[in-house]
């Protein structure tokens, strides 16, 4: 057992999987000598050579499209998109090519590949560096969408993603890359993709969240519980596609209240989907309307208003007061 | 030094003139191969004509004919080795047949079967609808082939219109940087639906674009099967040694873009006539007759045989049970998600209205 930050855990996992399986190769911009702008691939090129840790020209569509070709011919590419906001450049290769290859080929071909990208706000980046676009992929059948919120999960989930025979989008909250250290076993372990984690048990409210919002929600709930006599259950969904319905529904059926917190914009976002799910399957257990606390329906804002735009402690507490007012 | 547009002079490789006469020395190709090459061209044309007819009868769906492009398609595919990979667009039925895709797959595809055009028996990707996307798959495939020391070349087939897409350029760039065993085979059939090549690019040729990416370019008479075959052989040889090649085959789409298109709206008949005179099958036939290794009797027999094969393939397709909606749920992920299972189980088994 050793302690690691999330970025260290990701780097460690990539190294372990590349050692274990010759077919695993990393491909992306600045991931070689530089080790990635966040150092996720630090030292890997020195260990595995340029053939397995590939510094590519700046061409996102090519990074994903070439990965589709590699994956379908027996390699296991782990592609890095430098910032998730740049994924638009590669949308066709993501959703029309990688995600559909199994379907289009009638099951003859598959694309076992991982696309990693840092995402999420609160770190004062330039434009298009902080956007949370996971909803675009939730809406695109054929791709799995995983978003760890801590180092331990990052290792287990990334290991699972690399060994998965479907394309996996692996989104890393950049605010949490170095936010805290955690005990992470060096031994091999896998966290099943599609299984949520109940972070904390509670009786009167379920908060469903993921990625960068998880530590924030934990902190807010801790304060809330100190000042009220209600307890709150927190679910870190970890994977939004496929989503762990059972964990969410079991919790909401117990608590009767639900709040969904995410940084992606509200309209048509993953929160809408989760809310619809609860509506379809647990409506009569609810004692209050479901509330979504999300990014606003604007482009990701400039740093001076970022903190108000993002789900923050005040907005979450306001939402909690509202669900308890019914 | 200033580089001016279109300073690069590109000369088209050609062996047979418009009448099928050798323009110079013949490349070293065995008679038997020449005959086989021509037989495949006949097969492709038979398929094409039948597919058009079947579409008009409403027995298959939209089809993109290849008539006029048989020399480009068959000549290039005939040069491939079994271990090579093809990444086709939607118009490469001829290529795919030569490379081993069962003919019935194309009927099944146009009839809306799930099975589609990929097959376990041939190294051919499913047909690509997003023009250009396949170039990157070929690049990645070539990377994997090189990594696994397969000695295989990956060939992306694309039209002239497709070369305007970003993916084409990103693919050429990757190929040049990594020196991949890949060939980009452009069939410049003069039109992208209703837009002529002159509105697709400001450069005088597509082949010269190779220069900008540090790879080899070549232009070939795409209606001259002999020239295409021999050029492609050399391109593959180079690619096998890690020298990617961009081939531009100058050809012509004699028919409509697809069965849903009417070319008389945007092109004049004079143009079509000019190209009909350079028809690839006519040329190859004249060449083989001149060589006295082909005659009318063989020709007739071959058309009959080809026609029979097409009929058999169509029969097979017709007798294949229709795809069921249940099947689609199993093709999204390796294992059905709970959501997909639930949606599958939600399909009503009988009508609710009586
Ligand atoms: C990305 C994309 N844009 C537009 C289309 C619609 N479309 C289908 S074929 C075609 C023309 C392609 O022309 P070309 O590449 O020259 O190939 P050809 O059809 O002549 O073989 C267009 C615009 C498409 N399939 N994909």
Describe what this molecule looks like in 3D.
- The complex is a heterodimer of chains A (326) and B (354).
- By secondary structure, chain A is α/β, with parallel strands linked by helices.
- Helices cover 37% and strands 20% of the residues of chain A.
- Chain A contains twelve helices and 14 strands.
- A seven-stranded mixed sheet of chain A has the order 3-2-4-5-7-6-12, with helices on both faces.
- In chain A, strand 6 (144-146), helix 7 (151-163) and strand 7 (168-173) form a beta-alpha-beta unit.
- In chain A, helix 1 runs parallel beside helix 7 (151-163), helix 3 runs parallel beside helix 4 (91-98) and helix 9 (245-255) crosses helix 10 (270-282).
- Chain A is globular and about 60 Å long.
- By secondary structure, chain B is an alpha/beta fold.
- In chain B, the strands form two sheets. Chain B has a five-stranded parallel sheet, sandwiched between helices. In chain B, strands 4-5 form a two-stranded antiparallel ribbon.
- In chain B, helix 8 links the parallel strand 6 and strand 7 (245-250).
- The longest helix of chain B has 26 residues, at 31-56.
- The N and C termini of chain B lie far apart (81 Å).
- The mean pLDDT of chain B is 96.
- Chain A binds chain B through residues 25, 51, 54, 56-57, 59, 61-62, 64-75, 77, 92-93, 96-97, 102-110, 141-142, 144, 164-166, 194, 242-243, 245-246, and chain B through 85, 87, 114-116, 118-120, 125-126, 130, 133, 135-145, 147-148, 154, 166-167, 170-171, 173-174, 177-178, 328, 330-334, 337-339.
- The complex binds thiamine diphosphate.
């Amino acid at each position: 057992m050793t302690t690691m930050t999330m970025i260290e855990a990701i780097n460690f996992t990539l190294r372990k999987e590349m050692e274990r399986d010759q077919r695993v190769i990393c491909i992306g911009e600045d991931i070689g000598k530089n080790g990635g702008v966040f150092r996720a691939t630090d030292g890997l090129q020195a260990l595995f050579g340029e053939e397995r840790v590939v510094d590519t020209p700046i061409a996102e569509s090519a990074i994903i499209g070439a990965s589709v070709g590699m994956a379908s011919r027996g390699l296991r590419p782990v592609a890095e998109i430098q910032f998730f906001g740049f994924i638009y450049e590669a949308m066709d290769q993501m959703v029309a090519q990688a995600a559909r290859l199994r379907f289009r080929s009638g099951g003859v071909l598959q694309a076992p590949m991982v696309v990693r990208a840092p995402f999420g706000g609160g770190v004062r980046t330039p434009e298009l560096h902080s956007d949370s676009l996971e909803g675009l992929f939730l809406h695109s059948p054929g791709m799995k969408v995983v978003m760890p919120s801590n180092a331990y999960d990052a290792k287990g989930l990334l290991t699972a993603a690399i060994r998965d025979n479907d394309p996996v989008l692996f989104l890393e909250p950049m605010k949490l890359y170095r936010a805290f250290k955690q005990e992470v076993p060096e031994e091999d372990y896998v966290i099943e993709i599609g299984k949520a984690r109940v972070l904390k048990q509670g009786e009167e409210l379920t908060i469903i969240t993921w990625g960068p919002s998880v530590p924030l929600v934990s902190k807010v709930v801790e304060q809330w519980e100190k000042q009220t006599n209600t307890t709150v259950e927190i679910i870190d969904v970890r994977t939004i596609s496929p989503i762990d319905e059972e964990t969410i529904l079991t919790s909401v059926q117990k608590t009767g209240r639900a709040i969904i917190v995410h940084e992606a914009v509200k309209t048509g976002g993953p929160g809408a989907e989760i809310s619809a799910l609860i509506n379809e399957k647990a409506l009569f257990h609810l004692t209050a309307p479901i509330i979504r606390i999300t990014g606003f329906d604007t482009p990701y804002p400039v740093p001076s208003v970022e903190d108000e735009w993002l789900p923050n402690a005040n907005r979450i507490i306001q939402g909690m007061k509202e669900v308890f007012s019914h | 030094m200033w580089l001016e547009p279109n300073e690069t002079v590109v000369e088209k490789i050609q062996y047979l003139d418009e009448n099928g006469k050798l323009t110079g020395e013949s490349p070293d190709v065995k008679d038997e191969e020449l005959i086989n090459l021509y037989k495949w061209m006949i097969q492709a044309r038979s398929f094409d004509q039948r597919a058009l007819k079947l579409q008009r009868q409403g027995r298959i769906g939209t089809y993109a004919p290849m008539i006029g492009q048989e020399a480009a398609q068959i000549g290039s595919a005939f040069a491939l080795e079994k271990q090579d990979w093809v990444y086709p667009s939607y118009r490469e039925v001829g290529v795919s047949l030569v490379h081993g895709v069962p003919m019935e797959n194309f009927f099944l595809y146009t009839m809306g079967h799930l099975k589609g055009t990929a097959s376990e028996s041939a190294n051919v990707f499913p047909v690509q609808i997003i023009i250009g996307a396949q170039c990157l798959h070929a690049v990645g495939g070539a990377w994997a082939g090189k990594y696994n020391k397969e000695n295989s070349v990956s060939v992306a087939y694309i039209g002239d219109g497709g070369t305007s897409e970003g993916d084409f350029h990103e693919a050429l760039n990757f190929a040049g940087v990594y020196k991949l065993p890949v060939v980009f085979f452009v069939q410049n059939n003069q039109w992208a639906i209703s837009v002529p090549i002159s509105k697709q690019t400001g450069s005088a040729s597509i082949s010269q674009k190779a220069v900008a990416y540090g790879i080899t370019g070549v232009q070939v008479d795409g209606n001259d099967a002999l020239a295409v075959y021999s050029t492609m052989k050399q391109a593959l040889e180079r690619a096998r040694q890690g020298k990617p090649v961009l081939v531009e085959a100058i050809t012509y789409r004699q028919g409509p873009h697809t069965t849903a298109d009417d070319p008389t709206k945007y092109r004049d008949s004079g143009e079509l006539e000019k190209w009909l005179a350079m028809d690839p099958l006519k040329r190859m036939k004249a060449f083989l007759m001149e060589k006295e290794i082909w005659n009318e009797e063989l020709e007739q027999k071959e058309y009959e045989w080809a026609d029979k094969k097409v009929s058999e393939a169509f029969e097979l397709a017709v007798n294949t049970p229709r795809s069921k909606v249940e099947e689609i749920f199993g093709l999204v992920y390796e294992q059905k998600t709970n959501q997909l299972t639930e949606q599958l189980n939600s399909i009503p088994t009988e009508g609710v209205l009586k």
